[in-house]
Amino acid sequence: MRWLGVALRGIQLAAALGLIGVFTMLLVAGRSDRPTARAWEVRVLGLARWLVVAVLLSGLAALAYQAAVATGRAGALVDPEAWIALVEGSQFGTVWMVRHGLLLLLAGLILLRERELSTADWVAWRVEGWALAVVGAGAMAWAGHAAAVEAWGLAAATTDAVHVTAAGAWMGSLLPLALLLRAASREAGADARPYAVLAARRFSAVALVAMMVLVATGLGNAWVQVGGVPALIGTPYGWLLSVKVALLVPILAIAAVGRRRLLPALSGEAATVGRPAMARLAGTVGWELAIAALILVVTSWLSVTAPARHDTPFWPLSYRLSYDATTDVPGAKTRVLIGSQLAVLGLVWAIAGMLVRRHTAWITAGGSAIAVAGLWVAVPPLTVDAYPTTYVRPAVPYQAASIASGMRLYASHCATCHGAGGTGDGPDGAGLPRRPADLTAPHTGQHTAGDLYWWITRGIPIAGMPPFGDVLSPDDRWDLINFLRALSAAQQARALSPLIEPGRAWLVAPDFTFAVGPSPARSLKELRGRSVLLVLFRLPESEPRLRRLAEVAAELTFLGTEIVAVPMSGEAGILARLGGDPPILYPVVTDGAPDIVDAYRMFTRTLEPAGLRGVPPVPAHVEFLIDRNGYLRSRWIPDVGRPSWTDLPILRNEIQILEGEAAATPPEEHVH
Predict the structure, then answer these.
(1) Residue (of 317, 467, 456, 474) closest to 394 by Cα position
(2) What pLDDT is attached to residue 531?
(3) Is the Cβ–Cβ distance between 279 and 358 less than 8 Å?
(4) Which residue of 121, 195, 273, 436 pairs with 116 in a disulfide if CB–CB is 3.0 to 4.6 A?
(5) The pTM is what?
(6) HEC string of 163-187?
(7) Axis-axis angle for helices 153-171, 275-303 (nearest 10)
(8) pLDDT in tens, 336-366
(9) Exposure of 478 by Cβ count < 10 A (0-12 exposed, 13-18 middle, 19+ buried)?
(10) Is the pLDDT of residue 115 over 80?
(11) Is the CB of residue 566 less than 8 Å from the CB of residue 597?
């Protein structure tokens, strides 16, 4: 079935681009009364009739195919009721109706063409045909991958439609151009040679603009559908896209030869220069067309392949580049800076060499050598080890329940070597070939989640770490990774104080789910758009503070802050113990508290000696201020540090700072 989808997509795309190209070439070539030129135009219009029939029939077949895919049964291919249901109940069906309505208008325009009595009639017919062909082809973008992009669907689909239009103006014009050049290169077509020369020069300019648009929109599409180098290198979509880009290289080389060598020779002496050059140019256009057909095949496969952004990358290399690798290496950042500047200078130099007319090869070679030297300087400090799972997307979100589960797994399987606090001082670590890693150090956060998954699954033989792939399920391993991420982040968060660092949102607050009594469960993520004052408390020590917060809860709510109080003791009847004077109207968690406490108690480490090593004691009361984007921004522990949120005006001021900040990008749901 997939082959059928690829074939139908290929026919649709080729016919749609061909229609754009036919009308583009007719407008570019202009009007002529020469017999050879008129015969060429008749031939091209005949081609347009076949193309419009092909696009309509393949569109009907594509509707049947999509109905079979949507229903999951092959019988829908010949079931008109399934077709109608698809048209009436899906975006694909709506786009299909609009697009084929436009194509029927185009078919009527082509098949019922009237005589053109004036230049205005000549221009109007071709412009109308070009517009209908462009809109009909561009509408395909609203039923493809681009339209499914969250938040940017309209922009992505529009970019894709412009990409298709530019492809049609260039790729679709190649066959009509080749037919014109072939006809005019013969002695019998001498009457149309000036017409063909002018058409070729005009097309060269149009093709140059179209190629620039193709590159710009192609980069935009790649950014939306791929998202990064790992997805480009490690997914089927990325591989196909790389093949598509690679096929452009010979096309550009062929086009450069035609533009620089053959195009200027077209107007030379007919028998010895002009006609032979025109015949060779027709041949090069034919080669461009053949490679363009391969690009269409690849593009058709892309249309039925999951976008790389939504696929799991398989990293095929044993290394990757990471700027974080320069953090602890003296002079590495300077080397990267110098090398990158040399590489950019060499690249600009090489491009400039391609544009000048004298000493092109020497200038380009010199620039390329400088660029290579710059990369030789800059790349080694950025290189770190990588594994097949390095860029695998975690299957379990970074949330309190997962961190709490990972904490228990760590205590059972890892603490004996890495130590109870993760600092590498466990009793069983002394006899290993290499001391166990300090998991609280910054390097833990510099490795990807996929790196950690590989090590936990396969072990590290050289360090004496055993594999856990047969001991822990995949979800258990992701829970453990979420705990390790939180452990490293908590160590870096020891400097958190009641005072916010304006504009510095870097510490992701683990998501959590909570409920109050019989009310439906909510999550921290659902509170995005408002800052959250997360209060971990223990009775009776915290009772005065909870009552003080009850007195100002309405004011904090007005400032855009939600209070969520979580008991650390976990005893039943917590609401009854708090009483109702004054009434506590903010949420006091009754379901989900243990996981929240387990996750957030990790972030109570301070710069005091007790918070540096091992497992520090958990204070009886701690408050976290989480901004409206989901980042943990400040923390208050009574009697630790100054200034203090005991003075509520200080808390109000910090909340107002958060509310005055510009919106930031929310954190990812999974660790990376």
Answers:
(1) 474
(2) 94
(3) no
(4) 121
(5) 0.78
(6) HHHHHHHHHCCHHHHHHHHHHHCCH
(7) 150
(8) 999 999 999 988 888 887 776 677 778 888 8
(9) buried
(10) no
(11) yes
